[in-house]
Specification:
With 172 residues, the protein is mainly α. Helices cover 53% and strands 9% of the residues. It has two domains: 69 residues; 91 residues, no CATH class. Helix 1 packs across helix 3. The termini are far apart.
């Protein structure tokens, strides 16, 4: 069984401290059905990214998968200019560390967005809505997008930030 993009979103939410016990609530938070979340948790367990007994994300293994696997398994590249929600280095975790460089900022296309930028396909269609409801998840999703579409500098900064945030949530 292969990991799907929504599995990464579920694992990010779980790694930020959400409980895996209530699939309906988790699904509602993520813009997914309870069965999608349940299937994602099962696939994450089979991939050894999540402990099947405790339903806790194996943070070091997951961090390695985010850094070394996600950019290749779920690549993205900025497309047409559209209105949307900032992601990658245009979002807060990295926006204070990286200048725009005259390029349009990467955004998730959204009618609710207030920023004009280059469209980036989110990992899951529900990810932008989930990010708007959960600032911690938003930061993690934006950092993952920096890994997916960034150049070496953006990827290095995102890798460092993801490591720090996952370590922080592990200790919380």
């Amino acid at each position: 069984m292969s990991i799907k993009p929504q599995d990464v979103v579920v694992a990010l939410k779980l790694s930020a401290g959400a409980a895996a016990r209530n699939y309906a609530k988790l699904g509602q938070d993520l813009g997914m059905s309870a069965s999608e979340v349940h299937a994602a948790v099962r696939r994450l367990g089979e991939a050894r990214l999540l402990d099947p007994e405790t339903k806790k994300v194996r943070l070091e293994v997951f961090r390695n998968f985010l850094v070394h696997g996600v950019p290749y398994a779920f690549p993205a590249s900025p497309k047409e200019i559209t209105r949307g929600i900032p992601t990658a280095w245009a979002a807060l975790p990295l926006s204070q560390k990286i200048s725009a460089d005259g390029q349009p900022p990467p955004v998730w296309p959204s009618p609710d967005g207030k920023v004009q930028g280059a469209a980036v396909q989110p990992l899951h269609p529900g990810a932008p809505g989930a990010a708007q409801r959960d600032p911690v998840l938003y930061d993690l999703l934006a950092l993952v997008d920096a890994l997916r579409i960034g150049r070496a500098r953006e990827r290095a900064l995102a890798e460092k930030e993801i490591g720090q945030r996952l370590a922080h949530h592990a200790g919380a």
